[in-house]
Design a protein that fits this description.
- Two copies of one chain form a homodimer.
- By secondary structure, chain A is α/β, with parallel strands linked by helices.
- Chain A folds into three domains: about 5-50, Orthogonal Bundle (434 Repressor (Amino-terminal Domain)); about 65-165 and about 295-320, Rossmann fold, CATH 3.40.50.2300; about 165-295, Rossmann fold.
- Chain A has helices at about 5-15, 15-25, 30-45, 50-55, 70-75, 80-95, 105-120, 135-145, 165-180, 195-210, 225-240, 250-265, 295-310, and strands at about 65-70, 100-105, 125-130, 150, 160-165, 185-190, 215-220, 245-250, 275, 290-295, 320, 325-330.
- A six-stranded parallel beta sheet of chain A has the order 2-1-3-4-5-11, sandwiched between helices. In chain A, strands 7-6-8-9-10-12 form a six-stranded mixed beta sheet, sandwiched between helices.
- In chain A, helix 1 (about 5-15) packs across helix 2 (about 15-25).
- The longest helix of chain A has 17 residues, at about 195-210.
- The N and C termini of chain A lie far apart (about 80 Å).
- Chains A and B meet through helix 4, helix 5, helix 6, strand 2 and helix 7 of A and helix 4, helix 5, helix 6, strand 2 and helix 7 of B.
- Strand 2 of chain A pairs antiparallel with strand 2 (about 100-105) of chain B.
- Chain A binds a DNA duplex through helix 2 and helix 4.
Chain lengths: ~350, ~350
DNA sequence: TGTGCCTACTCAACCGGTTCAGTCGAAATC
DNA sequence: GATTTCGACTGAACCGGTTGAGTAGGCACA
């Protein structure tokens, strides 16, 4: 089946290729009558502009890129990326931009992908996920002058645009909530060390612990998997002066932690309170349901997409602060049992 | 920053554009010495072929498309797609093909996306997920002659290539396992009605129920969410002559079902055995851990990608049967308590 | 009547690759 | 020594859009 081109339309309308291009792109240079006639013909024969030809002449590929740097195993576990993608998509497809996805092994590979995309002119801009402290990807993107939106922050984004949420505030809110319940020994199972948001949460945890004058506030890193969450929980719970509350950096680890506590004969929330970051459907399915920090991830993705499209259009953009995660108290948190 | 082109390489090497093209693509027509010299220059200046120009002259876009037709909420819940994507990606990026993703609202929108992609020459082929009975997308793709691999089946794939797994066999294995344990009243919470694999599993369930001469074998559809899983479970468990085992079409519903059973004071596995389809990390985190039907989804995606790349190269391909899901017995299944 | 200006186009170059039809010189064949 | 053959390479067309320069015709104004 032969694909129709503007030459076909031009022939049928009895005008030149140029006139067809002007007409279909809403440019001046054709009369309204001719424009309507051309649009009608284009619709009739089901014309779609060849994206390659368009990208070759104009500078825009009408596509943006997203590189994910996580092992397959973890990508599956975390609803975060899929929700983010669906939010991004909603915004992009409204403007008929395509999303090009690539799963990479490490930062070096990711940088290579950016360079390749840039060289191939395959994308007009990219999203940067999992921002790190002094992220090496940032200077590369600045050098390439490839429009980019960093999903994360604040800080360490260089001159790139960004979308971020105030995780520190959300963590402090959680700490104060646990403190108000009477908890004085609080532990935390963090995410991958090196990721900026892990670092920000860790710092906020330590600071809040000091400010509130907690007896104990320990935090350990992990890798988001249930196994790691279980291991960390086991270690916390078998230490002397064990914590009465644990905050987990994602829901999967919190669920694993809940299982470990119950296995060890501890009552939740009687002996141990549990808070999960990321409020997915899973948090409501456990026994007891998990108190969780949640926010609208698809909306976060949509904001990021809007920022990126603006950046591609050359508009000056900066950092956009998304809503702060809010705490939904459920059955997994309560006052600690008096000793 | 100016992107290097083959013209730049040609100038530096003192040859024509054509010679550079031959050299870089491994075509005959240049001497080995010249080829090496050109490759060295290309590497030195960091050359990447402009994908638009390549797509415009050759017919290949070096990209394939995947349209997902599920609401954002459900996409996030299910690890399936993310795992599938990471498997697909592994295969594609090895051949430096890009994956273009699009989330669509319904089948009509998906068909429109295929037509647009085809018209825009944006992709060389597509993956078709969530195959339905008499799927309307199949004839459209046949008409467009757009290379496609259907992920699902068997059957209803028309002349398109496909990758499938024998879900019926896996379901029968599960039924026989439960039967051997002593279960005679088995229920099933299925997936979205209309999806072919839901239909295949339902039919296999009904057939096996009859063949084994079960006292009861009821199956209801759902939408994969925990809420629906919980609702269906509640209805099953409050009926007279309630089932002693329930098979769920995904892990999230199984976990929700487990919670419901425990809420209603039923012991798992004593009063109720539970089997989940899709063996994610979650299945091992519950109490008791869930007996589950699992298989290697990233590998499934990789096979699909290989099939699609072969189809794009014009090789004749048919249906590829992937491994059948295998049952991993865990703590959620046991012999039913004698009445 | 000539000049200026605007509208509505046409024409051709251009983007950066691929590919086919030649060309040129050297080696092989008779 | 003339002819054929072949390898190595050049030149130009081509893919399908976009875009700037050029132009014909109409109308207004002095």
């Amino acid at each position: 089946m032969k694909r129709p081109t503007i030459a076909d339309i031009a022939r049928r309308a009895g005008v030149s290729k140029g006139a067809v291009s002007y007409a279909l792109n809403g440019q001046p240079g054709v009369s309204e009558a001719t424009r309507q006639r051309i649009i009608a013909i284009a619709q009739e024969i089901g014309f779609n502009p060849n994206s390659a030809a368009r990208a070759l002449s104009g500078a825009t590929a009408n596509a943006v890129g997203l590189a994910l740097c996580r092992p397959a195993r973890i990508l599956g576990i975390e609803p975060f990326f899929m929700e983010l993608i669906s939010g991004v998509e909603a915004e992009l497809s409204a403007r008929s931009y395509a999303l090009t996805l690539q799963v990479v092994a490490d930062q070096e590979a990711e940088i290579a992908v950016y360079r390749r995309w840039w060289g191939e002119r395959r994308v007009d801009g990219v999203f940067v996920c999992d921002l790190r402290v002094d992220d090496r990807r940032v200077p590369v993107l600045e050098e390439l002058q490839l429009p980019a939106v960093v999903i994360g922050g604040p800080g360490h984004t260089g001159s790139l645009a960004s979308v971020w949420a105030d995780d520190a505030a959300a963590l402090v809110e959680t700490m104060e909530y646990l403190f108000a319940l009477g908890h004085r020994r609080i532990a935390r199972v963090g995410g991958l060390p090196g990721l900026l948001h892990t670092e920000i949460r860790r710092q906020a945890f330590v600071d809040a612990g000091q400010r509130l004058g907690l007896e104990q506030s320990v935090t350990v890193p992990s890798d988001y998997t249930g196994e790691e969450g279980a291991r960390a929980t086991r270690r916390f719970l078998s230490s002397s002066g064990r914590p009465t509350a644990i905050i987990y950096d994602n829901d999967v680890m919190a669920i694993a932690g809940l299982a470990v506590a119950q296995e060890m004969g501890l009552a939740v929330p009687g002996d141990l309170s549990i808070v999960a970051w990321d409020d997915s459907a899973l948090c409501q399915l456990t026994h007891p349901p998990l108190t969780a920090l949640g926010r609208d991830i698809p909306a976060y993705g949509a904001h990021a997409a809007r920022q990126l499209l603006a950046a591609i259009e050359g508009k000056p953009i900066g950092a956009y602060q998304d809503e702060t995660a809010h705490l939904t108290p459920r059955g997994s948190t309560a006052a600690p049992r008096p000793v």
